[in-house]
Amino acid sequence: MRILVTGGAGFIASNVVDAYIAAGHEVAVVDDLSCGFIENLNEKAQFYEVDIANPKVEEVFAEFKPEVLNHHAAQISVPLSVDDPVADARVNVMGWLNLLEGCRKHDVKRVLYVSSGGVVYGEPQKLPADETYPIQPESPYGITKATGEHYLHFYSKQAGFKYVTFRYGNVYGPRQVPHGEAGVVSIFIKALLAGKAPTIFGDGSCIRDYVFVGDVVRANVMALEKGGNVALNIGTGIPIDVNQVYKAVQAAMQDQTPALSGPPRRGDLKAIYLNAGLAEKVLGWKPETSFGDGVKKTYEYFRDKEQEA
Ligand SMILES: NC(=O)c1ccc[n+]([C@@H]2O[C@H](COP(=O)([O-])OP(=O)(O)OC[C@H]3O[C@@H](n4cnc5c(N)ncnc54)[C@H](O)[C@@H]3O)[C@@H](O)[C@H]2O)c1
Predict the structure, then answer these.
(1) The domain that contains 58 carries what CATH number?
(2) CB of residue 142 inside a 6 A radius of ligand 1
């Protein structure tokens, strides 16, 4: 298949690109390198360095003629979205509309869109949240991710393509960036690698659904063939708090350094984890990597990278 991947120089999508290329697909990447890294880019992928909100994106559709659009590029910082909702919407709404126009004009057959199960449900009263839980985001980032889902549904009806929306949990693993939703895993690992004690904010009881990037990649591969016009949670359903994250990092690194404690951070959701039963039904997808194994793989990646430097 000819697959256009946006954000393919970033953490999650660069791993997706590697898997698509390994499976024999032809891949082009659109990324403006605002947060991504050229060294993440698979050298077999065609690369277009362009902002998704730039009208020039249409030239990419005209030239590459993708059958599938896999959309990962985004403004991903919740705090930045709170400080500057306009900048967040410029990328996550206007950029997305620009791409959807490309799909409509250039006969794209299938679209995979990345939303966030960590933010679109707000602070759910019933956990784990499944896809029927009301959409009630509490940050501009959550609002733009949810808005993107609605636009996708509209364009799919207009243009006749099929789509799968992924509502990821907190994705962690090799190449992850500290400012993403599961940033805490890499923040702890990097601090200990630098011989520093990391800080746990508040009492460390904030609960999230940590899903390993390798498992997320499998969902992106499966959804090339399966699933039509559906939103799917991609998570483990296992609640893990920040104190447990730190323990897992300490165990993987065999490092007993105690964490420092800091004041609670304003606006952090208390608890969110996801029921991913629908993804199993629709795609046959289930997470396979335990948190301990995933943290170990993430640590080994950062350790090896540091040794190479
Ligand atoms: N990391 C998580 O835990 C998590 C959870 C839920 C959803 N998501 C979503 O997954 C996607 C990928 O996130 P990630 O963690 O890999 O982040 P990332 O920052 O590593 O990747 C995003 C990529 O998009 C590119 N980009 C940003 N703005 C762009 C623009 N205007 N034009 C072109 N490219 C642009 C960046 O340069 C970067 O390479 C995002 O849509 C994010 O919202 C991530």
Answers:
(1) 3.40.50.720
(2) no
